[in-house]
């Protein structure tokens, strides 16, 4: 079983299902791009990430984005933010360290407060989903 978009482009194979809290069941898929496998949830009209929120050292959610890591799994968690539904993944080549963050980007909103991210690795943009897929999404 797989999820496809309105043009029958394959999003990914279904690995399971989850409830989204509104009595809907959402498929979990593995998206493969540029040699990376990323876990995502698929709504009928959009995607939902499986990764943590993006942390920033700036006060306004700009500059280098950071993720709490490291990740040593075959399927990476994907964080989705910004216009184009950009998928961010952890930089697996980076050495994890401590970052004192000043802001957090979550579901398009920037929250300002100071917190430590440890171990932290840089977040890398993988793909803008809106340039590849067109809703609605369905099972096939």
Topology:
Elements: E1 2-4, E2 10-19, E3 25-33, E4 36-42, E5 47-49, E6 54-56, E7 65-68, E8 76-77, E9 79-81, E10 86-90, E11 97-106, E12 109-128, E13 138-139
Parallel strand pairs: 4-8
Antiparallel strand pairs: 1-2, 1-13, 2-3, 3-4, 4-5, 6-7, 6-11, 7-12, 9-10, 10-12, 11-12
Name the descriptors.
6-stranded antiparallel sheet, 7-stranded mixed sheet, 140 residues, single chain, 13 strands, globular, 0% helix
Structure commentary:
The chain is an all-beta fold. It has one domain. It is 0% helix and 58% strand. It has no helices and 13 strands. The strands form two sheets. Strands 1, 2, 3, 4, 5, 8 and 13 form a seven-stranded mixed beta sheet that branches. The radius of gyration is 15 Å and the shape is globular. The N and C termini lie close together (6 Å). The model has no long low-confidence stretch (mean pLDDT 95).
Structure class: mainly beta
Mean pLDDT: 95
Strand content: over 45%
Helix content percent band: under 10%
| Biggest pleated-sheet summary | 7 strands, mixed
* Rg value: 15 Å
Spell out the helices and strands N to C: EEEEEEEEEEEEE
Number of domains: 1
Shape: globular
**Low-confidence runs:** none
The number of helical runs is: 0
Calculate the terminal CA-CA distance, rounded to whole Å: 6 Å
Number of strands: 13
């Amino acid at each position: 079983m797989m999820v496809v978009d309105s043009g029958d482009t394959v999003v990914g194979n279904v690995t399971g299902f989850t409830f989204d809290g509104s009595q809907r069941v959402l498929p979990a898929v593995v998206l493969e791009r540029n040699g990376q496998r990323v876990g995502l949830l698929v709504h009928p009209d959009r995607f939902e990430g499986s990764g943590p929120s993006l942390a920033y050292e700036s006060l306004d959610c700009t500059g280098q984005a950071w993720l709490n890591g490291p990740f040593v799994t075959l399927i990476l968690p994907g964080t989705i933010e910004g216009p184009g539904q950009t998928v961010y993944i952890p930089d697996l080549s980076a050495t994890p360290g401590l970052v004192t963050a000043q802001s957090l980007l979550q579901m398009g909103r920037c929250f300002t407060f100071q917190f430590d991210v440890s171990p932290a690795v840089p977040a890398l943009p993988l793909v803008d989903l809106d340039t590849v897929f067109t809703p609605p999404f369905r099972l096939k």
